[in-house]
């Protein structure tokens, strides 16, 4: 038997714990709004007049029309849809470059329906510990009852999801009656079946796997983010080293040694307080070791729907849902520390360090290594320290205070961040060159679409000359050209259109199947009309190879006009 590990590991189920806090409430609000929009919008009515659908939002595939309240998009106006898709892409780039994967964490359909399914699961089976016990329990009557109940509710949600989708493509009340009486088109039942299956499986059994393996965005997001992007992160310079311990007053910590370094670390020398969220509190373990604010309670891991530990750094699986922030803030409140150990951070929010340093876990001097202290911060050499000259004496002042004159080996090493460093304000992370460019492009496209929407005409026409033959010579020697004209009436009632010519005084126009030069076009429809343009035998245009002229269509009721330029072919072609 082979000792090689399997190519794919079995999925480890994740049971997120319930958490309360600002971001969890924000996710509830967004979930309620997005689900409300999805399920209820097809039932909103909008009066467009006779012979037109009264559904506010409708994708009418039969008529090849898209209705959105007072806006009607025709097939030839697909550039509006293309523009909206471009705006959606730029908006995704904008929010990702500014705030990381906020789309994934708050408004992605996979996230929204997973939250809904988790709510049902927690309601039926209990919170994290109860679900863990149920998962490990044998299959008895209680376990079957709870699982079947949960699956039935999930299935009902999935059916409602698939049903709501098809209502966007037909009149919702009519289609609903047809579905219940089994008279709906087969494509409706097939669509509902596919969406029901995908919602049930993805939301119930493939929650994090969809985000990790099926969605391409986790692998693309790296190109959208930079060191100034705000995303969920862990202040390791404040939280490390982790461990259980009691909060101590400053005096107690100073008694343990390195009082000057302690003051510098906690910002006390600069007039700060131990409530600064970027500096750790004076905490000591029972053995006297200095600890950070993280008590290693695993609360941030237990609430994560992706099952990751944010303290290990930014990871592809993180969807920036910020539930770990709520969980950590709750723990910090219990131990009397300020919020923000886990928070929305950027890479350039880290305190600055000198050459030779790693993350400033705790301040130390060159004596720390000799004492065997496990700080995780190697002491830089005198050559690497900007506050020490080549002979090992101090040469700079830090935050206006006189630097110690002693040799570097005789004084604790104080990093600049512990005295005068402050993180960037949020607005500097949001208003950066990249985000401003994205915002400008997004706004320009939006303004362009709005402008195009308001200047578009209610009547349109297209002119296509018939090429076979290019002209016909009549019995009296006149030259006739044939054109197919498509008239488009966007009004809610039938309109009469009068056709006329300009730039060609010797030409006359007649309509096939219609007396005179007027034709009626039905409400909100397109009509194809064949038109004949004739030049008399003695007219100069009849003898010229090509002559340009303009065809006009005028709404006889409103006076609105539209035109197209085209060509008249004379007998000199041969």
TrEMBL record:
<feature type="compositionally biased region" description="Polar residues">
    <location>
        <begin position="387"/>
        <end position="398"/>
    </location>
</feature>
<dbReference type="InterPro" id="IPR013783">
    <property type="entry name" value="Ig-like_fold"/>
</dbReference>
<feature type="transmembrane region" description="Helical">
    <location>
        <begin position="26"/>
        <end position="44"/>
    </location>
</feature>
<dbReference type="InterPro" id="IPR017896">
    <property type="entry name" value="4Fe4S_Fe-S-bd"/>
</dbReference>
<keyword id="KW-0408">Iron</keyword>
<dbReference type="GO" id="GO:0051539">
    <property type="term" value="F:4 iron, 4 sulfur cluster binding"/>
</dbReference>
<dbReference type="GO" id="GO:0005886">
    <property type="term" value="C:plasma membrane"/>
</dbReference>
<keyword id="KW-0249">Electron transport</keyword>
<keyword id="KW-0411">Iron-sulfur</keyword>
<dbReference type="GO" id="GO:0046872">
    <property type="term" value="F:metal ion binding"/>
</dbReference>
<dbReference type="Pfam" id="PF12801">
    <property type="entry name" value="Fer4_5"/>
</dbReference>
<feature type="domain" description="4Fe-4S ferredoxin-type">
    <location>
        <begin position="282"/>
        <end position="313"/>
    </location>
</feature>
<feature type="transmembrane region" description="Helical">
    <location>
        <begin position="436"/>
        <end position="455"/>
    </location>
</feature>
<dbReference type="InterPro" id="IPR014116">
    <property type="entry name" value="Cyt_c_oxidase_cbb3_FixG"/>
</dbReference>
<dbReference type="InterPro" id="IPR051684">
    <property type="entry name" value="Electron_Trans/Redox"/>
</dbReference>
<feature type="region of interest" description="Disordered">
    <location>
        <begin position="355"/>
        <end position="401"/>
    </location>
</feature>
<keyword id="KW-0479">Metal-binding</keyword>
<dbReference type="Pfam" id="PF13746">
    <property type="entry name" value="Fer4_18"/>
</dbReference>
<feature type="transmembrane region" description="Helical">
    <location>
        <begin position="78"/>
        <end position="95"/>
    </location>
</feature>
<dbReference type="InterPro" id="IPR032879">
    <property type="entry name" value="FixG_C"/>
</dbReference>
<keyword id="KW-0004">4Fe-4S</keyword>
<keyword id="KW-0812">Transmembrane</keyword>
<keyword id="KW-0813">Transport</keyword>
<keyword id="KW-0472">Membrane</keyword>
<protein>
    <submittedName>
        <fullName>Cytochrome c oxidase accessory protein FixG</fullName>
    </submittedName>
</protein>
<feature type="transmembrane region" description="Helical">
    <location>
        <begin position="182"/>
        <end position="205"/>
    </location>
</feature>
<keyword id="KW-1133">Transmembrane helix</keyword>
<feature type="transmembrane region" description="Helical">
    <location>
        <begin position="151"/>
        <end position="170"/>
    </location>
</feature>
<dbReference type="InterPro" id="IPR017900">
    <property type="entry name" value="4Fe4S_Fe_S_CS"/>
</dbReference>
<dbReference type="Pfam" id="PF11614">
    <property type="entry name" value="FixG_C"/>
</dbReference>
């Amino acid at each position: 038997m082979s000792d090689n590990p399997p190519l794919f590991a079995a999925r480890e189920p994740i049971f997120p714990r319930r958490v309360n806090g600002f971001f969890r409430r924000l996710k509830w609000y967004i979930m309620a709004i997005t689900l409300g929009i999805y399920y209820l919008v097809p039932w909103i009515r909008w009066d467009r007049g006779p012979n037109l659908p009264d559904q506010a939002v409708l994708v009418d595939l039969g008529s090849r029309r898209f209705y959105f309240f007072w806006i009607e998009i025709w097939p030839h106006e697909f550039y509006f849809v293309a523009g909206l898709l471009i705006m959606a892409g730029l908006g995704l780039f904008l929010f990702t470059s500014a705030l990381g994967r906020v789309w994934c964490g708050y408004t992605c359909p996979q996230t929204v329906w997973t939250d809904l399914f988790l709510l049902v699961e927690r309601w039926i089976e209990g919170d994290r510990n109860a679900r863990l016990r149920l998962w490990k329990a044998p299959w008895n009557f209680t376990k079957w009852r709870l699982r079947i109940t949960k699956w039935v509710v999930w299935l009902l949600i999935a059916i409602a999801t698939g049903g709501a989708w098809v209502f966007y493509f037909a009149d919702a009340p009519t289609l609903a009656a047809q579905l219940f009486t089994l008279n709906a088109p087969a494509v409706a039942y097939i669509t509902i079946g596919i969406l029901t299956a995908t919602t049930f499986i993805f939301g119930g059994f493939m929650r994090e796997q969809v985000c990790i393996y099926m969605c391409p965005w986790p692998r693309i997001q790296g190109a959208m983010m930079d060191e100034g992007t705000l995303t969920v992160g862990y202040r390791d310079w404040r939280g490390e080293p982790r461990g259980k311990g009691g909060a101590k007053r400053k005096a107690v910590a100073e008694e343990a040694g390195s009082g000057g370094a302690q003051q510098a670390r906690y910002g006390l020398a600069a007039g700060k307080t131990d409530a600064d969220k970027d500096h750790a509190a004076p905490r000591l373990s029972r053995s006297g070791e200095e600890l950070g604010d993280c008590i290693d309670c695993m609360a941030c891991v237990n609430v994560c729907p992706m099952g990751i530990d944010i303290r290990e750094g930014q990871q592809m699986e993180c969807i920036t849902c910020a539930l770990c922030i709520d969980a950590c803030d709750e723990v910090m409140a219990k131990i009397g520390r300020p919020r923000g150990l886990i928070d929305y951070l950027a890479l350039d929010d880290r305190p600055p360090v000198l050459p030779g340093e790693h993350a400033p876990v705790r301040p130390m001097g060159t004596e720390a290594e000799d004492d065997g202290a496990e700080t995780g911060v190697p002491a830089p050499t005198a050559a690497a320290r900007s506050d020490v000259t080549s002979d090992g004496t101090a040469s700079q002042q830090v935050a206006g205070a006189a630097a110690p004159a002693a040799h570097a080996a005789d004084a604790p090493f104080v990093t600049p961040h512990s005295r005068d460093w402050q993180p960037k304000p949020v607005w500097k992370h949001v208003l950066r060159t990249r985000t401003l460019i994205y915002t400008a492009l997004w706004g320009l496209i939006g303004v362009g679409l709005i402008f195009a929407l308001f200047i578009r005409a209610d009547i349109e026409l297209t002119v296509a000359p018939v090429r076979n033959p290019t002209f016909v010579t009549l019995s009296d020697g006149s030259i006739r050209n044939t054109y197919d004209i498509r008239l488009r009436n966007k009004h809610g009632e039938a309109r009469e259109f009068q056709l006329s010519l300009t730039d060609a005084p010797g030409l006359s126009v007649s309509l096939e199947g219609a007396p005179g030069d007027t034709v009626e076009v039905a409400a909100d429809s397109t009509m194809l009309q064949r038109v004949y343009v004739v030049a008399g035998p003695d007219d100069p245009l009849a003898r010229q190879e090509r002559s340009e002229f303009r065809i006009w269509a005028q709404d006889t009721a409103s006076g609105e006009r539209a035109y197209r330029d085209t060509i008249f072919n004379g007998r000199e072609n041969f």
